[in-house]
Amino acid sequence: MALPAIFIVGVLFVYPFFLSLMNSFKVKDGWGWDHYKTVFELYTGDLLYTVWISVASLAILLVFGILLGGYLRFRHNGWIEFLFKIPLFIPFVVVGHAMRVLLAPNGTLNASLAALGVIDLQNPPSIAFSSAGIITALAWKNLSLALLLLMGAFRSIDQNFIDAARNIGANYLRILFTVMVPMAKGSIAVSAVLIFTSMMGSFSIPMMLGTTEGSQMAMVDLYYQIVYQNNYGAANAIGVISYLISMGAAMYYLRTVTKR
Amino acid sequence: MDIRIQQLQKLYQDKPALENINLVLQPGSFTAIVGPSGCGKTTLIRALAGLVPINGGSIIYGEEDVTDLPPQHRQTAMVFQNYALWPHMTVFENVAYGLKLRKLAKAEIEQKVMSILEKVEIDTSDLKKRHPQQYSGGQQQRIALARALVLEPKLLLLDEPLSNLDAKVRQRLRVEIRRIQQDLGITAVYVTHDQEEALSMADQVVVMNKGRIEQAGTPEEVYRRPASYFVAHFLGNSNTLEVIRKDGDYRVGGQSFKMAEWLDIKGENLQLVVRGEEVKCSFDQPSMTGHLTFAGRLRESLFVGSGYRHWIEIEGQNLFIESDSKLQGTGSCYVHLPINQCFLFAKQTDKEAREIEA
């Protein structure tokens, strides 16, 4: 019964991964670490930048997700729930474009702020084409998935646990952070890992909202190595390193799940 | 300080869950609310805690109207059926939670937590390391009780706290909850579906049905002088006989009798309720002073440990009665119902009867 599933995983995941792993070690006259050396020489900063962007987006996302998920657990509101689920159905490229329109120097946000007299459009600040733009877009795009996972976790907490805290004097915010978040710790960790992994591998948003100078996210580097340098070895090495970082997160995920 | 509940009303989707609830809780008293599932008893206790918003009426503590106060400002503390101890906190943290919110000094919190846990007989060593899941159900409920009592609430609310425990632990905790409540002099409301629990623990028993109070009184009052067919039928091992009244004569099937005492009950179709332990059965005694006697048939006798339970048929109607010793005989018998323990009510409509049976 499990054979078709194993076959699919083998063909679609294990085989390409080993191919990629092997290619990352393949050099002109045999095997070696050359591609990894190149990647670390060129992209150590970018890899750290990628982790930093993912962690920052995740942190912002979790704060919003937990507050919003908590609110919706206390007061069911179908309309707000629907509103925050919309990004789930919007492709990454569309999110990237929408954020460019909103956050560009002459975008909607700045135009509104200028109309209010907050900023001067002659010399407008830009959120798009900066790290802040990528972080905003990644957090926004993934908020609905986070909310979906967090709401499920919060809703599975028995009402009596919440009422017990309310009854002896806790307000909603305190119940959220002292009762609900610790009780949903496992699910929050799982959501965080899943979203972190997806952010680490994001391409279209950093491509559309990132800067052309300074650090790039890992998948953008991978793209350049393939398209402009035609260096598949280095591209594979970036892929393997990203995979290992994600796997570190996934191992944490598995440990949390098995601990429960 | 007495607590007064006046004309309390709660609607769920326009259907009344609580209707015209009026109740006075004397200071330091223990009130048990009893009734079948869905009668509104849990809604009432949650409304008292402020966990359920109400649609009308008021709740007054002494002179203070707390109707619109949020739960955290009511000074009530609740104990839940499933304990609701937070599994991620240690026992100490669970009990200290409310005290920390009140920003008491660390030493004071420690002293209060230890003292209340000793009162509920929980071993206080290792409290800061052990989690509630490491304790038995009975012990968890003691910890939950401690978490509520440590705040010295004005009103202690207990929502079926013993329902998840086995019979022996339940028996013991009943006595202990009552002892602790009396020691501390706290006013308590206790919701249960177990009438024996209600009758044995409370100063005041409130019998609820369909969101209304059917009767409130001392345990003896509600048991010995039920105010409605529902109360008579609900409490104890009750049997109902269909009685027809015609021209001053009362009839159960083909057997008629006269009764002067029951004239104030209206209607032709009546229901007579009698408790199984009050009925006597004999094979050679056609009458008994102070009793109504019917000819019946002993269908079956069962040994139930503490005594015997008998299935008796009178004119096609079934009665289940109890006796300490085995009945010597079978078949035709005389069934004696003590007149002062027979409760007569006008017959329920079919709909009402179905609801009571449910």
Core attributes:
heterodimer; A: 260 residues; mainly alpha; MetI-like fold; 2 domains; two-stranded antiparallel sheet; 12 helices; flat; B: 358 residues; alpha+beta; Rossmann fold; OB fold (Dihydrolipoamide Acetyltransferase, E2P); 6-stranded mixed sheet; 5-stranded antiparallel sheet; 26% helix; elongated
Describe this structure as you would to a colleague.
- The complex is a heterodimer of chains A (260) and B (358).
- By secondary structure, chain A is an all-alpha fold.
- Chain A has two domains: 1-31, no CATH class; 33-259, MetI-like fold (Orthogonal Bundle).
- Helix content of chain A is 76%, strand content 2%.
- Chain A has a two-stranded antiparallel sheet.
- In chain A, α2 packs across α6 (131-155) and α7 packs antiparallel against α8 (172-183).
- The longest helix of chain A has 41 residues, at 34-74.
- The two termini of chain A are 28 Å apart.
- Helices cover 26% and strands 35% of the residues of chain B.
- Chain B contains nine helices and 20 strands.
- The longest helix of chain B is centred in the middle third of the chain and has 18 residues, at 167-184.
- The radius of gyration of chain B is 24 Å and the shape is elongated.
Helices and strands in order, then pairings?
The complex is a heterodimer of chains A (260) and B (358).
Chain A: H1 3-25, E1 26-27, E2 30-31, H2 34-74, H3 78-85, H4 92-103, H5 108-115, H6 131-155, H7 159-167, H8 172-183, H9 185-200, H10 204-209, H11 218-227, H12 232-259
Antiparallel strand pairs in A: 1-2
Helix pairs in contact in A: 1-12, 2-6, 2-8, 2-9, 2-12, 4-6, 6-9, 7-8, 9-12, 11-12
Chain B: E1 3-12, E2 15-25, E3 30-34, H1 41-49, E4 56-61, E5 64-65, E6 76-79, H2 91-101, H3 106-119, H4 137-149, E7 155-159, H5 167-184, E8 187-192, H6 195-201, E9 204-209, E10 212-217, H7 219-224, H8 229-234, E11 238-246, E12 249-252, E13 255-258, E14 269-275, E15 280-282, E16 291-303, E17 308-314, E18 317-323, E19 331-338, E20 343-346, H9 350-357
Parallel strand pairs in B: 3-8, 3-9, 6-7, 7-8
Antiparallel strand pairs in B: 1-2, 1-4, 4-5, 9-10, 11-12, 11-14, 12-13, 14-20, 15-19, 16-17, 16-19, 17-18
